[in-house]
Specification:
8% strand; alpha+beta; two-stranded parallel ribbon
Amino acid sequence: MDKLLLKMSYDLVYTPEEMDKTLFSIRDANDYPVLYTAIIEDVNVFITGDKDFADIEIEKPEILTPADFMAKYL
């Protein structure tokens, strides 16, 4: 499985210094820049074990736990 993950494509993205703080609400304000960056960089899938992201309903990116990602895509 590790070899399969290495074959998957990915891009490095960077968090902008200025952000629109109205795209979504999140319990932990420190997590806002992470998801904000994923949104503006047009990320397809956002993989996280942080439960603060579980209640956020957005169209894209798809927010998955590592286990959900593996079950769906691997």
